[in-house]
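Translate sequence into structure tokens.
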Amino acid sequence: MADEALEHIQLKRTQRDPETLRRVLTDWLAPRLGGVVQVSEPEVPEGTGVANETAMFEARWGDHEQGFVLRVASDSPLYIEADIEVHHDMYAALADVPGVPVPKVYGYEADPGLLGAPFFVMERIIGKVPADQPPWATTGFVFEAHPDERRAMWDNAVKVLAALHQVPVAKMPFLAPPAGVSGLGDHLAYWRRWLDDPATGGQHDTLEAGHEWLLRNIPAQAPTGLSWGDSRFANVMFRGTDVVSIFDWDTVSLAGAGADLAWWRTMDGPNAALPGIGTPEELTQRWQELTGTVATDLEYYDVLTSFRLGAILMRLFSQMGAAGTLPPEVAQQQARESAFAQLLASQLEGMR
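Result follows.
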């Protein structure tokens, strides 16, 4: 998420009673693990996550002991139409995909009666995740690594991105667009609903103009291909220089690979100042080498990225104002004058 929001945002923390969590998880896991289960008190991770509650715990059953992660749907989601079941289903769909490491999932629970909201449980993978707070390019294990190690980390992450984009869409029927609509077209329809949602914060002329431009200029061969949605270093787990898992499917869609390349270029491009981290141009070139595909319509997807980030920040700041995290008048100004809304305005002006 953009630095301007992270200066104020509160990362998701579970407010649920630890003993209640432990008891519910003990009963819920027993039939799934095939034995009597002992569960430790859940702990909340630090450093990243703004959409759903996360807790980590250990479980013992028989001769086994393993770490697990609990993800609970938020009662105040940032993303419209948020469905934590999609996260579970994505991990399940990618479980057997070579080159795309993800945690094993142990089940999804739709009944909100157990924890007050739907949830799922997955294995805990041991590794390090670059933090949003403080930014990973200024402190922490990536910053402290040798430039050659950072280059290996970056290249391995791009390899995973390339492998992800070659996953057949048939593995994700739950993402399928309506008949006759491309994945990118369906994604643009999602953002139309986002702008129309009252909680987004009302009319925003620049975002409206951006959405209209995206509809008018949609590529002639509009793609239907897997798009991670939030492709960036902060959603990649490393062990040494190896990628051991990727995370975060809040905006997963079938908008195609171009959307991910542009998002990564925008979100992590400035971090290329850190020796070893590839530039936006290097990202595109390396992805093309790995996939054997030419990345097209780069300008279009750069506009899409600015539009999406402007829309996300508008809703995020509006939520902050409603929650009292920021004074309402400050939140409203930030929502309407975010750096990405200004960037979008500049991009649209340059294409007149």
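Note: Residues 1-13 have pLDDT under 50 and may be disordered.
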